Request: fold
Amino acid sequence: MEVLKKYKTQLLFHLFLNFAFALFITLASYYHLPLYSFTDYSFYFFHFLALQFSIFGFLYFLSLNKYLFRFLFPVIFMLFSCIAYWVYFQDIAISHSIIQVSLETKADIILDLISIPFILYLLSSITIIFFILKYYNKLKANQLKSPLTILAVIALFSYSFVENYRFGTFNRRLPYNVITSSREYFGQNNLIVKPINQTIKANTDSLNVIFILGESVRADHLQLNGYHRKTTPLLAKRKNIISFPNAYTPLTYTAISVPQILTNATLTDDYSQPKYSLIDVLNHAKIQTNWIGNQTPEKSYEIFIEQSGYQKIIDPLHSELSFQKDYDDKMLPVFKTIFKPNQSQFTTLHMMGSHWWYETRYPDVFRKFQPVIKSKHIPSNTKEEMINSYDNTILYLDFFIDQVIEHAEKQNSNTLIIYLADHGEILGEDNLWLHAQSGKASENPAMLIWYSESFKEKYPETISKLKLKQNEKTDLDFFFHSILDVYKIEGIEYNKKKVIF
Ligand SMILES: [Zn+2]
Reply:
């Protein structure tokens, strides 16, 4: 009791400080979570408490130095509450591309975000800072002997313990995600692109390749591959479509899978040697390259977007972690304007696809399989709900690919559409869920090829070869070599054995 009395002011100060920090900053990361039951709420409540407890550790040690605290705390609090405002009100997820948007030239996007509610939020946070500093001045100097010091040490340990146990538990939430994303933004990329100094030529007449880069779609949930549900009804009615049910990649998350697909890297590459970028090679061969993406680019593959002759990122402020992300069909109008039937083009459409949280990925009309998931907390959903929601995303994918085909078909040009998911998804096998972990389902992505009538007339032997290879195991490193082959690229060596055409 004596101790409590002695440190009462300090204790109350830290309670107030952490309450304000939680309200203005930390809680924003939890605000949009779709939660349903008491268990969900309790789970995330404890999650939030644990996160705030770790922040207490940092704030406590900062508070030990009067000068540092008076100078740094207002800066930190202001900066993080600005960011938290956007997270609260627009569900913006903090990623390295947000850091990029804020630090590079896109001032208009930032200016768009400034509004009266934003200014009011800032004014309240300035008021809170004022009260915190006023309260802080009442504290006695040298509080190191306080029992709170031990608690703060435990708090710091809890942070590193949790992050070592499962990376991202805290680091993907405010305020830590600002630091994680900045580190990613300024960090080094594994991939070193091999420069092209020689002359490169494409020996095809105009050929349009549309590369639909999918997300988290496992092959065996496609009706086209014999799945018992009608998940691809539109594609099932189409001719000139070939499905490859046995595609394989051990790289089960976007950041490592995409660089492998778009370079001459093998599936087991360590990236110690520079690699050719497919986009770079095609540019040198005077093929028009376009990138339309609904995913906010990650550091590991943003180079391909930068290299593309035309680039458009849809909804750049919302990542896969936002719950108000635009649907993939927002890419279609852009695609239709840049698709030029009698030109040699290579157009990438990078989908949000079937990335968790599934219910954010498709419009209501595609909610055919029911009941669907209600909670972000996976254990609160049944296996049936998880699979229903997932299958609805496939139904939407069916619509999306069908729309792309329909547009290309109308133009009656020499066109090839390749759909390839970056990896699959685990749906309850061995009690595991989602991706970024090995398993048969996460390593077997969906893969489809559609060809136009005019492509069929020009290259009948290519179609026969594709049909012959359809059921073979197809490692995802076929892509680079096959694209070079289909454009009949000269001036760069590629592996003919990996060509599927
Ligand atoms: Zn992915």
Notes: The mean pLDDT is 92. The chain has two domains: 2-186, 206-498.
